[in-house]
Amino acid sequence: MEIDPFIFRLSIFILSIFVGYYVVWSVTPSLHTPLMSVTNAISSVIIVGAIIAALSGSDGEVFSSSSIYGFLAIILAAVNIFGGFLVTQRMLAMYKKKKKDK
Amino acid sequence: MSANLSAILYLVSGVLFILALRGLSSPETSRQGNLFGIIGMVIAVTVTFLSVGNFSSGFIYVLIFLAIGGCIGSFIAYRIPMTAMPELVAGFHSLVGLAAVFVAISAFINPSAFNLGTPGNIKLASLIEMAIGAAVGAITFSGSVIAFLKLQGIMSGAPITFKGQHLLNALLLILIVILTIYLCSTQSSNLFWILIAISFLIGFLIIIPIGGADMPVVISMLNSYSGWAAAGIGFTLENTALIITGALVGSSGAILSYIMCKGMNRSFFNVILGGFGATDQTSGSQNKEQRPVKSGNADDAAFLMKNASSVIIVPGYGMAVAQAQHALREMVDTLKKNDIKVSYAIHPVAGRMPGHMNVLLAEANVPYDEVFELEEINNDFANADVAFVIGANDVTNPVAKTDPQSPIYGMPVLDVEKCKSVLFVKRSLSPGYAGIDNDLFYKENTLMLFADAKKMTEDITKNL
Q1: Which residues of B are less than 8 Å from A27 in CB distance?
Q2: What share of chain A is helix, strand, coil (3-state, %, to 5)?
């Protein structure tokens, strides 16, 4: 009997939850704000769905009823990707160690 | 590009996202982690373009829309002040939620583009995943919008409650399940729209009863939801990168909510079911008799600190509101010049989001190895000469340890009262968010400094 591909995806999903659980517990509390902004940025990988949706129209009709939603989703996800990663970068650049005594 | 190759590359980008989170275990590796995240995102987007393989006029439009969004995002990221970080994160969550809704709608209208069947005849599993993705996305969207409005101060931060609220929410949730079942048997687009509309309504209803200081929990929870929404869509699209990321973000948000709830010694449901202060006001109001308070000015505070050998600073949300972090840093610089040891104590729920105070102090150039978490520093208060409480209140209240009647009893608090003397910068004697009096105000060794946090800090620096 063959295994449904859904079960494989479910396995990936469950294992990723566990990976996420252990990885996030090891995040130092002082970096919890950057953690939120970076998770925000990476969850915008939903843009792959938006791109597929946006390119679903034919050559003659770029903006069909379904591709318009794709284009809107691309804008939203792009705001998040650029905004999320850049603001994380900006925050992380501020975390400095104590300078050695002069 | 072959389906197998693209699946492997999506897996690679999923692994890079794991490394991005892993990097945050220490500030030294965090920047590299962020870079991994960016690479993962670039891979995922590139692979999607190559596997769709449609470089017609639509492709140009995709790039244009990508650029528009990118410019808006970059502009916001560079301009946003660090104190507004909670609003920003709430706003960003709402975008992820709405994007998930849009992708689900698009997949519902045109399932053949995603290999999910034809309109009106969508594969059952895909339809369920789509409905879950859309519903969670919609809840994330409207919930985050409310959180954003509350944090921004456009909407009152006070909890809004009404009779039958929880019953209504429960009924709506059951309705969503019923609609999903009907949707599967009828494939009716009307049901799909109603499902999304009700989900928007639920998101709105579950956030309005939650008050301002519970926002750390709310933001973490919405962070978690945005992850589950992404994972739902990931199952629909059969995309590993999206499934891995959704699971990571979902569990990350859940853990943060848990840490925040623990920091307040409240159960998750207690926070979600709303209205601290609105429901728990029984014990606070009876002892209203006037008790003597010692108040002082900047000169007294400067004198106390100059004669101290170690000072612990306890920042709270008030510091963010007054934008006092830079003034504070200048004061500390002056103290250090006088060979006074200074450290910072951060309570888990200080501020409006997890890690809020740490970011503000980092912005003011405070080295992160002078900043300590509650467990690390709590024993040091007994040996410190001065505690300088700036903008914090409930998290220092000793009542949490002594009075079982108090609504905050059992909440972990900073042992500020053990210091030889306590300087408390505050505008007035008004109680904090929990609606209870802080016993610390009336202690022998407490000196109240009634003023704006920033102005008071600057004045102390002048007097040092």
Answers
A1: 21, 24-25
A2: 75, 0, 25
B85–A37: do the CB atoms touch at under 8 Å? yes
Interface touch A5/B365, C-beta < 8 Å: no
The parts of chain B modelled with pLDDT lower than 50 are 276-288
Within 10 angstroms of residue B26's Cβ, the number of other Cβ atoms is 15
Looking at residue B404, the DSSP 8-state letter turns out to be T
Per-residue pLDDT at B286 = 44
Per-residue model confidence (pLDDT) at position B61? 87
Q: How far is B255 from chain A (nearest CA, A)?
A: 7
- Nearest CA-CA distance, residue A57 and chain B, Å: 8
Asked whether B215 and B150 are in contact (CB, 8 A), the reply is yes
Residue B151 structure tokens? 């944090």
Catalytic residue positions of B, numbered: 394
- Separation between Cα atoms, residue B276 and residue B21, nearest integer Å: 33
CA angle centred on B223, ends A52 and B38, rounded to 5°: 55
Q: Look at residue A60 in the predicted model and tell me its pLDDT.
A: 63
* Helix residue ranges, H only, B273-373: 298-306, 317-322, 325-337, 356-363
What would the pLDDT profile of B51-89 be if each residue is shown by its tens digit?
887 777 788 889 999 999 999 999 999 999 888 899 999
A chain contacts of residue B106, beta-carbon cutoff 8 Å: 49-50, 53, 56, 66-67, 69-70, 73
Among chain A residues, the shortest Cα distance to B63 is held by A74
Inter-chain CB proximity B99 and A54 less than 8 Å: no
Q: Residue A101: pLDDT band by 50, 70, 90 thresholds?
A: very low
Quickly tell me which residue has 């869509």 as its tokens.
B233
Using a CB–CB cutoff of 8 Å, tell me whether A23 touches chain B.
yes
Give the A:B interface size as CB pairs under 8 Å. Answer: 381
Q: Which of A31, A94, A29 is nearest to B82 (CA)?
A: A94
Nearest one of B79, B67, B205 to A90, comparing CA atoms = B79
Q: Residue B85: CA atoms inside 13 Å, Cβ hemisphere, count?
A: 31
Instruction: Give Cα B364 to chain centroid, integer Å.
Output: 21
Placement of tokens 């969550």 in the chain: B93
Q: What is the pLDDT of residue B284?
A: 42
| Residue A82 contacts B where some CB pair is shorter than 8 Å | yes
Contacts of B464 (CB under 8 A, 6+ apart): B302, B305, B306, B331, B334, B335, B338
Among A23, A45, A92, beta carbon nearest to B30: A92
Q: Residue B448 pairs with which residues in a beta bridge? A: B295, B424
B9 chain-A contacts, CB cut-off 8 A: none
